[in-house]
């Protein structure tokens, strides 16, 4: 397909993507702790939720 670019300016030259800054040691430790805490809750929260539901069912029986 032919595209007419006579009235349009040429596209800007390609630039490589900017590199994201690295995390500091402290930031890595905090992020690791948050991820670990979330993984722990991923395993424990359903068990705790089931225990609370069981307790509510037993309470109203």
From TrEMBL:
Residues 8-18 have a biased composition (Pro residues). The chain crosses the membrane at residues 30-60. Residues 1-25 are annotated as: Disordered. Keywords: Membrane, Transmembrane, Transmembrane helix. The keyword Transmembrane applies. This is Uncharacterized protein. It comes from Sphingomonas abaci.
């Amino acid at each position: 397909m032919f595209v007419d670019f006579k009235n349009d300016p040429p596209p800007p030259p390609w630039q490589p993507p900017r590199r994201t800054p690295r995390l500091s040691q402290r930031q890595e430790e905090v992020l690791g702790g948050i991820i670990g805490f979330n993984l722990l809750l991923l395993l424990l929260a359903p068990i705790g939720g089931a225990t609370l539901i069981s307790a509510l069912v037993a309470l109203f029986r």
